[in-house]
């Protein structure tokens, strides 16, 4: 007989035991709302990393780690008499039903749409309805700005993208990407002016403006700035490792190589990426 597969109830029971004042784990008993947040962010990034690497065999474990964070917060809520995991599931399901009237007309699972394919639903109408429902939810929470529920703990690039996207949806935007490019040039000029004045603090502020404008350019291109930068980080790391490898083959310590020698290996790494070998010892012409 095969071993019984654990289910969600088992996971909730495990968490309750870990937090039991007498039988629980000392580390888990020390945790609170604030101490778990860094772990939550880390686990979310590990999920994203596994997906980008197409490491789907690792994904169940990474998703489980992320789910465990939700279970953790739910346990804190239950201990304080605020809410439990089942409340989380209920609130989420109710919200998704409310936001998808084009799929669940009566706002119930039983009312799911039949006879109309997803392709027949007008995408723009769905998007408009989604935003309208989110606006109603913000109003119900007495939010005073379209920016109120953009989390402050998001990575700066992601938060910049969300802030600018929210503003763009109400008309605060450039008509096309050319306007953003002009803004980029303006911000770069302001960085150079601040540097020319020897004002490092002002230059740093202008660099922030330059980054924000770059995020807006990514948005107008339909690109995720976080993904763009992660891809560039990966490219830099890959090429720099080839610089290190090339210098090692020459027997030159990295700290003694000098910029000119390192740049030569860097350019060689770029050429190899542009023209990868088609077979051993052969380059693509």
TrEMBL record:
Region (Disordered): 251-285
Catalytic activity from the UniProt record: ATP + H2O = AMP + diphosphate + H(+)
GO molecular function, one term: ATP diphosphatase activity
UniProt cross-references to Gene3D superfamilies, sorted A to Z: MazG-like (1.10.287.1080)
First-level EC class: hydrolase
InterPro entries the UniProt entry points to: MazG-like_dom, NTP-PPase_MazG-like_C, NTP-PPase_MazG-like_N, NTP_PyrPHydrolase_MazG, PRib-ATP_PPHydrolase-like
Regions crossing the membrane: none
Any Gene Ontology biological process: dGTP catabolic process
EC number: 3.6.1.8
Chain ranges of the NTP pyrophosphohydrolase MazG-like domain: 33-104
Biased composition (Basic and acidic residues): 258-285
Matches recorded under Pfam families: MazG, PRA-PH
Key words of the record: Hydrolase
UniProt record similarity statement: Belongs to the nucleoside triphosphate pyrophosphohydrolase family.
Designated name of the protein: Nucleoside triphosphate pyrophosphohydrolase
Source organism of this protein record: Halomonas beimenensis
């Amino acid at each position: 007989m095969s071993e019984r597969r654990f289910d969600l109830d088992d996971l909730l029971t495990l968490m309750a035991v870990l937090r039991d004042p007498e039988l629980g784990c000392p580390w888990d008993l020390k945790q609170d709302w604030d101490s778990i947040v860094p772990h939550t962010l880390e686990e979310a990034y590990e999920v994203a990393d596994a997906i980008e690497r197409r490491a789907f065999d690792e994904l169940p474990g990474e998703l489980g780690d992320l789910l465990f964070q939700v279970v953790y917060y739910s346990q804190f809520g239950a201990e304080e008499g605020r809410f439990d995991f089942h409340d989380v599931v209920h609130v989420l399901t109710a919200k998704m039903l409310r936001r998808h009237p084009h799929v669940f007309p009566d706002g119930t699972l039983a009312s799911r749409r039949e006879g109309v394919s997803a392709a027949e639903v007008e995408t723009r109408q769905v998007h408009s309805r989604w935003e309208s429902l989110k606006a109603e939810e913000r109003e119900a929470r007495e939010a005073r700005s379209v920016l109120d529920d953009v989390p402050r703990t998001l990575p700066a690039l992601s938060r910049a993208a969300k802030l600018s996207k929210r503003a763009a949806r109400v008309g605060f935007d450039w008509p096309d990407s050319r306007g953003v490019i002009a803004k980029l040039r303006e911000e770069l000029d302001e960085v150079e002016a601040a540097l020319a004045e020897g004002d490092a603090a002002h230059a740093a502020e202008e660099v922030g403006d330059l980054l924000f404008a770059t995020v807006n350019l990514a948005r107008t291109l339909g690109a995720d700035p976080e993904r763009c930068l992660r891809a560039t980080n990966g490219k830099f790391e890959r090429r720099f490792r080839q610089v290190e490898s090339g210098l090692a083959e020459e027997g030159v310590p990295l700290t003694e190589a000098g910029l000119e020698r390192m740049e030569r290996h860097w350019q060689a790494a770029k050429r190899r990426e542009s023209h990868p070998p088609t077979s051993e010892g052969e380059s693509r012409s």
